[in-house]
Amino acid sequence: MGIDAAQIDRRGPRPDWRLPAILDIRIARIPFKAREYRHFKSVYAEYDEAVEFLVRTDGPFPIRALSPVLYVGDEAIVEGEPVEKGAYRFLAFEFDRLEPGAPITLGWPGQSSKARRETDFRYELEKPSSKK
């Protein structure tokens, strides 16, 4: 027996895709080594350093097919992973494209800048301290 599209009940609750607020961001330039795979090469294999964004939020990211994106101005940082509950790590590899002082926002891929979750944070990379 087939399902008639007209019979599908579309009145159920809509998912809540709102992103949590960012409470804190720590930004640092770090050494990087791409994972090694048996049958192919990582697209990040050419990089030996990255800018790491450690992001603490007031709740978890909603689960859906696409992962949230951290934006520095309009530059999307898509490589991200959970670190612990309420904490995520994003890595930027083309960090010369990140503008100092640019606002940091959180959104979904392809989302307009007006629809992104704003923060009070701006991109400033800490300078390494010189040891004597």
Fraction of residues in helix: under 10%
Which structural class fits the helix and strand makeup?
mainly beta
User: What ranges have pLDDT less than 50 throughout 5 or more consecutive residues?
Assistant: none
The level 1 CATH classification is Mainly Beta
Q: How many independent structural domains?
A: 1
Task: Tell me the strand percentage band.
Answer: 35-45%
Subunit organisation of the chains: single chain
Number of helices: 0
Give me the side-by-side strand order of the main sheet: 1-2-6-5
Number of strands: 8
CATH topology: Immunoglobulin-like
Question: What form results from the Cα inertia axes?
Answer: globular
- Would you list the SSEs in sequence order as H and E? EEEEEEEE
Main beta-sheet strand count, sense and barrel state: 4 strands, antiparallel
Distance between the termini: 78 Å
**What value does the average pLDDT take?**
88
Gyration radius, rounded: 19 Å
The assigned CATH architecture is Sandwich
